[in-house]
Every structure is written in C-alpha cells, then in structure tokens.
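Lecture notes, structural biology module. Today: joint structure prediction for complexes of two components.
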Amino acid sequence: MTALSLKNINKSFGDIRVIQNINLDIKPGEFVVFVGPSGCGKSTLLRMIAGLEDISSGEFWIGDRRADQLPASERDIAMVFQSYALYPHMTLAENIGFPLRLAKLPKDQINNKVQEIASILQLEHLLDRKPGQISGGQRQRVAIGRSLARDPKVILLDEPLSNLDAALRLEMRIELAKLHKQLEATMIYVTHDQVEAMTLADRIVILNNGEIAQIGSPLELYQTPINTFVAEFIGSPKMNLFPASVNEKKSQKKSIQIIGSNDEFAVDTNQHPPQELQTGNQIQVGIRPEHLVPSDTGKIKGTVTSTEQLGSDTYIYFDSDTIKQAVARINGVASIRPGENICFAVAHEHYHLFTSKGNRIKPTVL
Amino acid sequence: MIKRSKIQTAIVYSSAILLGLVLLCPVLWLFIMSVSSTKDLTTLPLSWIPADISFNNYISLIGDFDSTSAESFLYALRNSLIVAISATVLSLSVAIPAAYSLSRLPGKRRSSLLFIAIATFMMPPVALVLPLYSAMASLGLLNTHIALIAVYCGVLVPFTTWLLKSNFDAIPIDLDEAPLIDGANRLQIIWYITLPIAKPALGAAALMAVLMAWDEFFYALLFTNDIRAKTLPVAIADFAAGRVADYGLISAAGILATIPPVSMAYFLQKSLVSGLMSGSVKG
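The predicted structure, tokenised, for the full assembly:
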C-alpha cells in the first residue's frame, strides 16, 4: 500500500497539451477510477503514472519518493493492459512468473509464488497452457496474475474488462472488487464505462479534455455534479438539461422558471452569487431521468417520441417545447405510446442549477 | 470455408504440379548430368536416362583427396561455409538491435536512416566494386575471408534489418511495454520477448542471408584468386574455365553445393511456420 501524489502534472505532444495541471492525491489502498470520454487523456495519465510516457512538467511522487524521472521498471508499479499483453510463447506459469524471473528469484520461490497466485485466481489447472489455448476471461485473469507477482505497491488497470462479454464483465468486476479488498493494494483503474466506475471506485476522477473535471465519491458525483459535463457523464440515461430563466420576486427572492413550462420555484438570492442569478439571466436546470415522475398535474410537458422497455424500467423519450429527446425513467413497465402527450412532476430538491456556461450554482434550491 | 468444385480443384492441383515440375526439372537434369558420362552428355539427342550411370564425379570431388578438383572443391566448400556463416551471424547481430530500434524507439531521423540503408542495398555492385577493390587492396585484405565477410555484411545488414523491422512492427507495442513494467530492460525485452515471437522472421532472415552469401559470385570472383579464399560459385566456374569443360564434374559440384543451404532450409522450416502470435493480445 502506497500513496501517490500528482502535482501540477502536464503533458504535451508537440504543441498539443493532452494533460493539463493535474493535481491528485491518492491514499494508500484506495481504489481510484479515471473515467471520461475517449480522447480525454485518461489512458495517457495512467501511462504517465506507469512510466510509459514522460511527464512534460510537474511532480509525481510514489510514497515519499519522487518518481517522475524513474524508469518504469523501478517504480514498483504493475499494470494490466487492455489487450492483456500476454507473452504468446510462454506458458501461463511462465507468464505469471516472468517479473520474478527478471528479478532473478530462485526457481522454487518463483514456483511457489506462481502457485499461490494461480490459486487466488483459479488458474491452477491451466498453468501449462499457452495464452492461445485459453478463453478471454482466463487471459484476463492471467494478466491480473502477472501484475500481482511482484507484490507491487500500486496496480494500474487500463480498461481491463473492455474486451469481455457483458456477463463475464460483471463477474470479473465483482472479482476485482473482492481482489482489491483481499490485497489491500492501491489501484488505479481506467474505464469509459461509468457503471464500472460507479461500482468499483472509492473515488472517481472525471477527466475532460486533459483536465480533471471533478473528483469525488461515486455518490458525490451523482448528487452534486460540478458542471453539466459531469452531470451528463455520470448517470444513465444522462441528465436532462432544460433552459430556464431567472425572474424577479418579492422580498429579496427570485424565482426560476423552466422555459416553456409554468414550473416556477423560488430561490433565496442571499445564498447565491447575484451575478449568476440576475433577473433575466438564462440558466439551465438539470433533472435526472429517474426524478421525472409522470403526473397529470405535472408542469413539465412533452410529447412521447419513443419508449424503451427494459423490464425493470421503462425509458420514455419525449420532446418538450425547448429540448428534444429528453428522457424519463420509470420503474416497471409503463404503457405509454409514442405520440401521446405526457406531463411530469419533479420534486424541487432534485433540481440541479447550472449557469448558461454549464457551471453548478450552489446550493441548489430552497 | 468455401467448397471448391471438382474443376477448380483440378486446376489448383495441375497448377501446383506444373509449378513443381518447372522448379524441379532443372535440378533433376543437373543430377542426371552429374551421374552421366561425358560421352552421354555430348551425344545428340540428349537422353533423360544416361546409358551408364556412375558416381565418379562425386568421388573425384569429395572422395579422392589427392586430385586437384577435390582440393579446390573442398577448400571452396570450407571458404563458403566460413564466409556465409560469419557474414550471417555478424549481420544478424547488428540487424536485430538495429531493427528493434527502428521499429520501436522514437525519433524522426531513425526512419530516414533506414531509407539510406535500403538505398545502399539498391546500388548495383558494379558501381561499388572499384572503390571497394582499391580499399581492400590498400588494406591488404584481397584474397581473404575478411574481405568477403565485410562486403557481404554491407549487403546483408540493410536487407536483414529491413526484413526484421517489418516483422517487429507487427508485434503489438503492448508486448514491449508489459515487460518494461515487469522490470525488464531493452536488451531483456529483445531477448525474452521480441526474438522468441519473431522466431519465424529470424529464421527467414538467417536463411536468406546464408543463401545470398552462399550464392554471391561477382565480389567473390573479383576479390579472391586462389583456394585460400575462393568460394564455391567461383570454384565451380573455374571448372568450366579450363580448356575442356567437364559438365559432369560441374553438375556434381552444383548438386553438392546445394546440399548445405537446402538442409538448412529443411531444419528451419518448422520455425518458418508462423502462428505463434495467436492469443497474445485480445481475443
């Protein structure tokens, strides 16, 4: 278990800055997930931590040792690659034992360690096979096994489950969570799958355009997204953003009205920076699909365009006056047809307010 | 798999047989010549089956140590082996790290370096032979193994580097980075990972290098002048250069000269068959 610390980390390829001012402290034994859309720099950041990419500027510390100039082999970090990167000419036992062979450990010691890892990962009966002779899920386990061989301080996982089918992915996800508890190792996990991020992480780091958009526990990100990017990225289906206007009200209060609806609610401007809630300002109101409840008296109106029945849930896509393809999520099976008019009610505590540029206005609602 | 009709199968097989005949007929004729008597070879029309078969030509090349033809043949065989193997080993030991660096390490200048190397490979030997000759002469290296080994390395290094580089390129970069994280240095990566995976390419490169050095005639003819350094192609040509060309003897020497490279190809064929890559990355 080791802490990691990134201070003002930058990375440029020529003139293009792919990683900008990353500041992040990872506690010993923590499970941190980097998540973001493709091209956001999450894999590059992971490779910089591993030592496979240079750090253009900034400091990187492993425990109390500065590591940004250390070669990958001396960082005591293990990595599981998205492609598994197993050595095709070696048996599984040789694959798992390879880091120990490089460390010049005696043979019987290597064998013991390989057996120990194989029993954790249920690979004992496959040790004589080569990577070409086993299934994808087993390859994934071997790749994890190889990363455990040296008892590394830190384990990096680069989209390790993306090549597996849905059922196997779920199974491996649970196993990874178990493994993390068992090993108590610091783990950094890169994924574009927010479900993996939400279920595995102690803390999630959301990256966008090479910058950290927000850091927090899964629920923090879900409940108080710092901007519309995070709000739309976390949660499935994604959050609806309705345009709204700020209206004047009596006694130092203002009200916010979702445009095209008569849904109006009061906010206490004493608690808000006035420039964000000036009368007449355009802002955005975010509402998660699960908080839109069909109701005859509901004030958010729309026309259903399509529905998706998932059995446990129904997704209702609708067009309101101001936004197209808004989505509501209803428990169970709902018998609503495309073309029908529909009204939704929303409890005001579920509103997320954002400026027109997309930054959160906090605290949200009175 | 698509099923072929009988006609298609017939066409495929007859083409294969035709190709086999075209390739093997000259070799067969060479063998027939080598066991025929001079009389059979000078009577027209030539016949496929000679009147009397004798292995005297082979005996005079490798059995009778006192004859001049055996002396020149066996010395030439030794010279060819020394030159071909040394040139191959030397050029591969340069080409492997060179190909790895060209394939894996960053830097724009590297790729232009490869183009320059390939360009020298494209130059006709005639353009190079005079300066090379005077250089070898002033170094006192004419008629030595070293002269031929050096010249052949000059030809083989660009060729094997290029061949290996394109094979190393096909190995996923993850298979370089994973051992790096496992604690390996670059040389260990080449030794433990890259070379075992590229074994078929390595076998092919070694085979091609040996063959090129074994068959080379032009430089060998100009840079050597007696049995101390003459290689087989030159020695065989010498058999034809006398007053009377003994075609049987030349053919026997030709057959014997093909044995080393053919047996090498036979032993390397296993490593030439690829398929090692399956299962290393993804599913």
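Point to remember: The domain at 240-355 of chain A is CATH 2.40.50.140 (OB fold (Dihydrolipoamide Acetyltransferase, E2P)).
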